[in-house]
Amino acid sequence: MTAATLTSAPLLKIRTVTAGITLRRGENIETWRAALEGAATFCAAASHRLTEAGFKVQTTRISTNPFEEYVDAADAPAALDTFRAIDAELCRLGVGLFAAGPATSAAGIAMAPDIVCLGPRISVSAALSDPLDSESAAAIAGAILRISKETAGGEGNFQFCASLNVPPGIPFFPAAYHAGPPSFAIGCETSALLAHALPLAGIPLG
């Protein structure tokens, strides 16, 4: 263990190790199982290595490409059946958090609350490409309102958000999504480290 690790580990926490994978239209859970298993195995191994190095790992997660690339939002019943199958696989693998990427169409936004209502594991977002697009903004607001009414205490909105100019590859949910070859990202929680460092730099807190 390095001196830097010894100094940082008590203060710097690993909020998430997030593995990104690509799922494709026309395939099914049987085809996707290997990718999901590989991502889960990687996250577990990464978490173990980081823990051995003295870091506290709070969560491990999987994110995918935007879900409308691998399910048909226009056929909501079939799409939701697919997400039920994914959810069952996540449960089998012990994966607690999964981001299905952003909805990019009106049908996708309309289906987002139904995905969230399947359970606590699957997150989804809605990409707003233009902040002046009032029609899309209203649809996203409607989805947020539905989730607030259809999940206990409205807490399903921890699994949904509107996103703007969010690139692929970020580790933070619910806005996270993936593009390209398999990848991973580490999200750090640095508030304690910052609170420790600022006074050392002569910057008072409060």
Protein architecture, described:
This protein has 206 residues and is an alpha/beta fold. It has a single domain, classed as Anaerobic Ribonucleotide-triphosphate Reductase Large Chain, CATH 3.20.70.20. It has six helices and six strands; from the N terminus they run αβαβαβαβαββα. The protein has helices at residues 3-8, 29-52, 76-93, 106-116, 134-150, 191-200; strands spanning 13-21, 57-64, 97-103, 122-127, 160-163, 183-189. The chain has a six-stranded mixed beta sheet with strand order 5-4-3-2-1-6. Helix 2 (29-52) runs parallel beside helix 3. Residues 1-8 have low confidence and may be disordered.
Give a quick account of the main beta sheet: strands, pairing sense, barrel closure. Answer: 6 strands, mixed
Could you please say which CATH topology applies here?
A: Anaerobic Ribonucleotide-triphosphate Reductase Large Chain
CATH class: Alpha Beta
How would you describe the shape?
globular
In DSSP terms (H or I, runs of 4 or more residues), the helix count works out at 6
CATH architecture: Alpha-Beta Barrel
The sequence of SSEs as H and E is HEHEHEHEHEEH
Helix content: 40-55%
β-strand amount: 15-25%
Q: Could you report the average pLDDT, rounded to the nearest whole number?
A: 92
How many domains, as an integer? 1
Alpha-carbon Rg, integer: 19 Å
Distance between the termini: 34 Å
Q: Unreliable runs, pLDDT <50, ≥5 residues? A: 1-8
Counted beta strands = 6
